[in-house]
Amino acid sequence: MTAEATRDAPSQKRLRADAQRNRDRLVEVAAQMFASDGVDASLEEIAKRAGVGIGTLYRHFPTREHLVEVVYRREVEGLCHAAEDLAREHPADVALELWMQRFVDYIATKRGLATSLRLLLTTNSTLFSDTSGRVSGAMRSLVQAAAAAGKIRADVDSSDVMHALGGIYSAPNTPDWRERSGRLVKLLMDGLRFGARG
After folding, report:
1. Half-sphere exposure of 10 toward its Cβ, with a 13 Å CA cutoff?
2. 136 in the same domain as 170
3. What pTM was computed for the model?
């Protein structure tokens, strides 16, 4: 045990909880800022908005790439959990549409992380192997459920829907990008519902 760990031992449980809250808040704020400002968002500003000092940020995330990786994993996890939650709480077609709107937020963050994600792709083989297929799997389960319920066309292939949503990623990053992306999701859902038996 280090001298620092020994010093903190009497209140270790409380400090651990505080540290986890700080870390969670840093990741939440970083995701928001990467989505709005890109991967070059100021780490000092992230720490400030999270209500902690820059030293706390660096204790949790020694490099910008480490923070980017954690934010990316968080976004993937959130998107996959959202699919499960929405499927339980809404009719199948509504769950699919709400999830696709949530996917737009995921894309916004991913666009902000693009430069660092390309770097991580060459240096961290586990990041993409761990997350590969999880998002498309979540999409597939929602599409299949909506088709089985007769809420969307029975001939819909989830990979086609994913390709259509992927087009949002490459759209110009204009001030109204999110609004336009939301409209595109609605148009896509109209097409999926057309001809459904339900």
Report:
1. 1
2. yes
3. 0.79
